Amino acid sequence: MKRSEKYLKIKEILDNSPDVIFSINSNGTITYINKSFTKVLGFKPEEIVGKSVLNIIEKEDDFKRCLKIVEEKDFCPDQEVFLKTKNGKKIRVIKKVKGIKDKEGKLKQIIVNARDLVYLDLLKEKLEEYAESLEFLIEDRTKQIREIKTFLEDVISSTPDMLVVIDKNNKVVLLNKSAKELLHKNGDFLKKVKIITSENGEKPLKEFIRDFKEKDKSKTYNCVYTDGNSEIPMFVVVSPLIHDNRLTGFIIILKDISDLKIKEEKLALYKTIFENTLDAIGIADSEGRYVDQNRSNEELLGYKINEIKGKHFSEVLKIKDPVDVWEKLKKEGRLRFIATITNRKGEEKHLDVVAISVKDENGKNRYYVGIKRDITDLVKREKELKSLNEQLKKRLYTDPLTNLPNRIKLIEDLKEIGSPKLAILNIDDFKEINDFYGHKVGDYVLKKLGEMIKNFLPEKSFNVYRLSGDEFAVLSMRYIPSAEFEKIVNSIIYNVQENPITYKDYEIHLSLTAGISLENHNILNKADMALKYAKENKKPIVYYREELQMKELYETNILITRKIKEALRDNRITVFYQPIFDNKTGKAEKFESLVRIIDTDGSIILPGSFLEISKKARLYPEIAKNAIKRAFADFKDLPYQFSINLSVKDITNREITELIFEHLSKPFYKNRVMFEILESEGMENYEEVSGFIKEVKNLGGKISLDDFGAGYSNFEYILKLDVDYIKIDSSLIRNIHSDIYSQIIVETIVGFAQKLGIRTIAEFVHNEDVYEMVKAMNIDYSQGFFLSKPKPLEELFK
């Protein structure tokens, strides 16, 4: 026979085979199909040849795994799979896969032989028919029976399930390949298979067969197969063989369902998670009608599933613009939004909603899942935070004695005015009034004077402030000529002198001195300078002018700059440390690092005298780096935490932050270093500050928000910046033992911090009364001169 004829003959056999036969190349492209392929799956050659095999298989991963095995072994083990027909129907088949490689050993083609299991079921029925008629067959059909037996054995051997035929004495008369492996491995496997029934629990298969009645029909059971120390879950089908109404044996089919059990366990796990998650989950069909919900969804909305099943979600979940939300979800497949609803009980709920679509195998939206997180408490807390911020802002911007705006408010207002004019008014010899009449009368005078100044002003375009002690300020809130402003200030001074304050039977006469500045830049400092000049030269009113920049101030700046440079050159930048005490144990647990300069005569120059000048002279970064290096070196071998003060400018200075990260990366500094960030400075650089904090925390450092309550305080900073400590500003601690307003603000700060697990530190604890009040208010730590002054390292632990 010629080669071409042989090829045609083989092709004819393949074309007419009852099995579904097709070939694919290594890229997964179908290259050949037989007639059974078209008959069973519905695809004509011109519709499927040249197309991807993914058009007929259910899972791409199954193809990839099989391809990998064929590349390694030239074949893929028999496996039960599903093939997809042209109309989307699934057909269960047993497949055989064989690889064809070229001379170089590369995979060229893959031949797939798939047998429809429906066909096997029909075949089994035919076998039973054949079995019933075996006794009537005559001798001359023996050969045909043998052929049929061989064919049946081939069919049985190709079945992936374990198939065993035994007689009534439990002797094995027929078994397939899978069963042979089991029998070879475990001998009498009948003892190792235990059938599970609701009536009798576990029962060995051998005993089960022994008790089988002739009238009993084929049954399917769950069973376990003992393999050493493990148990394999299986399905078992036991079918009796009946001849002449007599039980002659059994057909036993075992199927390993380990994968199915795993899937069932996963499904049970998913169901448990679904039912018990705190997030409310509702499931709707492709039309948006409820089909299921979990327990949290029922508790949130107040409806049981049978009350809402079949209803459109918009009837139950009263959200804004439900039509728009629905259309957007269908289009995008995923949606997140904040919604406010009213549940069945009439409660208003704020929800963070994530809605997603679940697609079927054809990519169509089958279900929609809405995951709702109740953020009502969070929204409520945000409102409370806003209210707290407003209260704190009011307290911090208001002088508690006179109820006038304070210096902090003046600084804020100056930022908003285009052409301000400012006068600072000081009561002459106010100390004498306090000494003569007492502080109670002094406070009364201050309150009355604030009212008088306010009443003397001609209109609402002026604000009156109490700055501190016996100083008040008048600020024009709109443009007025300088002459008019001077006239108003003179009028205030004159009226105060002419109208004494009456307290009981006393008339208290006052006189005022004023410093005025009409310039935008640095207006407050310039008015202060004018007032100082007026007081020193006993003038009632002085306007700021350049000549008031005192020569000695200029000379002082030059002197300090020189001292800083010499200190940097001679290594005379040093650090003092002030202990921070635990209010419960009374022990010093932390130490704040405070930079100092040692002068040539051995005296100590405090930072208030040189830091601002160093910034103007651009020497500050070198001072900061020296102080940071010194602090890390001093505490390297000490068993204490220490803190370093940083400004936002320090954080944005790359050299300083790299120096910090270099030291923090060393293991002996982990969890021992705290960075105190000034709360009132530059928090608009939030991204940079936040990035620095995250890196510090990654390296084991801690963060403290310094001077909290000093004018720019905002509870949002605490949440955003993820701080570990809040250091309450000295302005709130100084008089906390006697100032009810300070107590209210501090109680708010401490309560808020405790809810978030943040520790609090009171600074400026300067006497015993303040210390006792701080402890009574449950502040965690105290720091101040009453407990210990800052000291050099060598004196710290004496």
Q: Ends: how far apart?
A: 112 Å
Q: Give the DSSP E fraction (strand runs of 2 or more residues).
A: 25-35%
| Count of separate DSSP helical elements | 30
Could you estimate the helical fraction of the residues in percent? 40-55%
- Rg of Cα set: 45 Å
Question: Mean pLDDT, nearest integer?
Answer: 84
Shape: elongated
Summary keywords:
alpha+beta; eight-stranded mixed β-barrel; seven-stranded antiparallel sheet; 798 residues; 30 helices
Description:
The structure is a single chain. By secondary structure, the chain is α+β, with helices and mostly antiparallel strands. It is 42% helix and 28% strand. The protein is built from 30 helices and 34 strands. Strands 25-26-28-29-30-31-32-33 form an eight-stranded mixed barrel, surrounded by five helices. Helix 14 (376-397) packs antiparallel against helix 28 and helix 20 (551-569) crosses helix 21.
Strands, helices and their partners?
Layout: H1 3-16, E1 20-25, E2 30-33, H2 35-41, H3 45-48, H4 60-73, E3 75-84, E4 90-101, E5 107-116, H5 117-132, H6 142-158, E6 162-167, E7 172-175, H7 177-186, E8 193-197, E9 201-204, H8 205-210, E10 219-227, E11 230-243, E12 246-256, H9 258-276, E13 280-285, E14 290-293, H10 295-301, H11 305-308, H12 313-316, H13 322-332, E15 334-342, E16 348-359, E17 365-374, H14 376-397, H15 407-416, E18 422-427, H16 430-437, H17 439-456, E19 462-468, E20 471-476, H18 482-498, E21 501-503, E22 506-508, E23 512-517, H19 523-536, E24 541-543, H20 551-569, E25 573-582, E26 588-598, E27 604-605, H21 607-616, H22 620-634, E28 641-646, H23 648-651, H24 654-664, E29 673-678, H25 686-698, E30 702-708, H26 715-721, E31 725-728, H27 730-733, H28 740-756, E32 759-762, H29 768-776, E33 781-782, E34 791-792, H30 793-796
Parallel strand pairs: 23-24, 26-28, 28-29, 29-30, 30-31, 31-32, 32-33
Antiparallel strand pairs: 1-2, 1-5, 3-4, 4-5, 6-7, 6-12, 8-9, 8-10, 10-11, 11-12, 13-14, 13-17, 15-16, 16-17, 18-20, 18-23, 19-20, 21-22, 25-26, 25-33, 25-34, 26-27
